[in-house]
Amino acid sequence: MSHLKLSAQEVTELRRLDVAHHLPAQSDYRLQAELGGSRLITRADGSTIYDAEGNAILDGHAGLWCVNVGYGREELARAAYEQMQELPYYNTFFKTASVPTLRLAAEIAARLGGSLAHVFFNNSGSEAVDTAFRLVRHYWTVKGQPKRRVFISRWNAYHGSTVAAASLGGMKPMHQQGDLPIPGIEHVMQPYLFGDAFGEDPAGFAARAAAALEERILAIGPENVAAFIGEPVQGAGGVIIPPPGYWTQIEAICRKYGILLICDEVICGFGRLGRWFGFQHFGVRPDIVTMAKGLSSGYLPISATAVAAHIVATLRDAGGEFVHGYTYSGHPVCAAVALKNLEILSRERLVERTAEDTGPYIAKALERLRSHPLVGEARSLGLIGGIEIVARKGTNQRFAGKEGTAGPMVRDICIRRGLMVRAIRDTIVFCPPLIITHAEIDRLVDTIKAALDEAAPALTALPVAA
Length: 466
Ligand code: PXG
Description:
This protein has helices at residues 8-21, 29-34, 62-65, 74-86, 99-112, 125-142, 163-168, 172-176, 193-196, 202-220, 246-256, 278-282, 309-318, 332-347, 350-365, 367-370, 406-416, 438-460, and strands at residues 41-45, 48-51, 56-59, 118-122, 150-154, 185-188, 225-230, 260-264, 288-291, 303-307, 375-381, 384-389, 419-420, 422-424, 427-430. By secondary structure, it is an alpha/beta fold. α10 packs parallel to α11 (246-256). The radius of gyration is 22 Å and the shape is globular. 3-[O-phosphonopyridoxyl]--amino-benzoic acid binds next to α6. 3-[O-phosphonopyridoxyl]--amino-benzoic acid (PXG) binds at residues 26, 64, 124-126, 129, 158-161, 231, 235-236, 264, 266-267, 292.
């Protein structure tokens, strides 16, 4: 395949167009203008992205936590091309459906297992969460418990950017814009041992974090609570891996009070933690599962909301329409690509490989960072992880400055050295494609180490945060 080659003038012109006409997602538009536009990513292959200047950058973040099978999969392009020729579009509103949509629903249900047999399709993770939100409230009404309205989520959770999803999320800067959360949503503590309970016994902390849910349920009145929603591992919050026992206690509390359990698997799903879904790793059984990203490895937008049989049985018994759906729900081209993506994940055993090979390999490689004077913790599960940058070794104290001073500094050095990673405050997070090789994992870890070394003189000159 011949690749797009841009001259220096074309790059300059495109960056001018960026500032003149384009508003990128979750961005500071003044900063965008000051920087003279965005970095242009022009192509990608395997686990590597290339920018317009021709720099090769190891994609330590799988795009935005999504390109699980890696870039450059001709099979996925072919699946889209063939489906577009056969049937580029049809809807699921008119008692109609398309072939790949139904096959995909069955393949997802098979991987979820148990009673999670029914799938509602959407286009994005946010929409999958909105669907869950509306479906749950509708379900409780139909079930004859219309007072069950309240959703409980966690601070620092991320569930998307639409009004309901951002409300369910626990990101205070998002709430501040647009008067969120909407009514009927409450937040409890997150299970962030390193950040919020440094040095506490993990089992005790797990019990304390779960008890916070029970206390809130009792304060609201269990008869008013509809559902609890959580990411098995919080991604955008900073790759927060809960301590052992947390999830089983959360599930037990939901069951005790008859509250629905929603697992938001938008990041954890499709092999990220070494199982098809994160809830399988933690040994719980949600009633509803939201998924997106790795479902199509990001090649096309598609998401799904999986619903347990007991919920669907209630809706069927009652009859009447669930008045909800998107023009592109069950889009045949997106479904065909997702179907092929699942085939690749299965055929190449990428989920098993994450559990048995690359996940343990990256966990071992992180050992090399743990002794670094700036590293407070280096954690991972499967192929997702985070490195906490601290001002004083053996503590969780940060460098002073704006929230997240060290993280962005180290991240920028990583990118300059050819590694794309994210900084979430002072945590460097990684989430590479599941096809990443051992050599690439070594490069990922060693680049972060070199970036920490390079940043050290500037960082250690800063005061420690109060
Ligand atoms: N749930 C979870 C757990 C997510 O991570 C969404 C829902 C929403 O998906 P859509 O497709 O609507 O974006 C996400 C998305 C970040 C970042 O800063 C993370 C996401 C999206 C944008 C930025 O890490 N995750």
